[in-house]
Amino acid sequence: MFISLKNNKAFSAIEMMIVVAIIGILISIAVFNFNKIKEDVKKKACIANMGTIHNAVRMYYMENPVVSDQFDLSLKALMAANYLKTEPRCPNAEKLTNSVAFYSILDKPGKKIDVLCVNTQDSKSAHGSYLKLTQPASAQQPEAPANQ
């Protein structure tokens, strides 16, 4: 009538539940880390885009040193003058359906160049977010942007 459990090679229900719970915990940790890495990659791509725009503005000013303070330098103007091949797109704009994300150039010729990535519908805040890269016009390397 009694069955010996010593020779039984199968798992009990409790052992299976423990294994499934451990696997679930490991998967949730992996998914969380993957999403964080994905966001970091998008932020670094955005920073690289801003650096590209900044360098295009610097090249424009090197080749066109006499520019009025009233001149509005835009991405379209940089593309028309062949300093940019295509208009850089913010990688965060892809994740939101109605996201309005764009790059903006605020510059004073010969003084400083600000390149902004503005995302008006960021999931992190209702007011949106932006990254800012500020450089003197004569600087060689872009500095890390500050979250505002």
Could you describe the 3D structure shown?
- By secondary structure, this protein is an alpha+beta fold.
- The protein has one domain (13-147).
- It has helices at 13-63, 75-80, and strands at residues 101-108, 112-119, 129-136, 146-147.
- It has a 4-stranded antiparallel sheet, with helices on one face.
- Strand 1 and strand 2 (112-119) form a beta hairpin.
- The chain is rod-shaped.
- Residues 139-148 have low confidence and may be disordered.
Report the helical percentage.
Answer: 25-40%
Rg, Å, rounded: 26 Å
What is the number of helical segments per DSSP (H or I, 4+ residues)? 2
User: What is the N-to-C order of secondary-structure elements (H for helix, E for strand)?
Assistant: HHEEEE
The low-pLDDT segments are 139-148
* Mean pLDDT figure: 73
Broad structural category: alpha+beta
- Coarse morphology: rod-shaped
Strand content of the residues, in percent?
15-25%
> What's the end-to-end separation, in Å?
74 Å
**Which sequence of strands runs across the widest sheet?**
1-2-3-4
Summarize the biggest pleated sheet: 4 strands, antiparallel
Task: Tell me the domain tally.
Answer: 1
Beta-strand segment tally: 4
What is the oligomer described by this structure? single chain
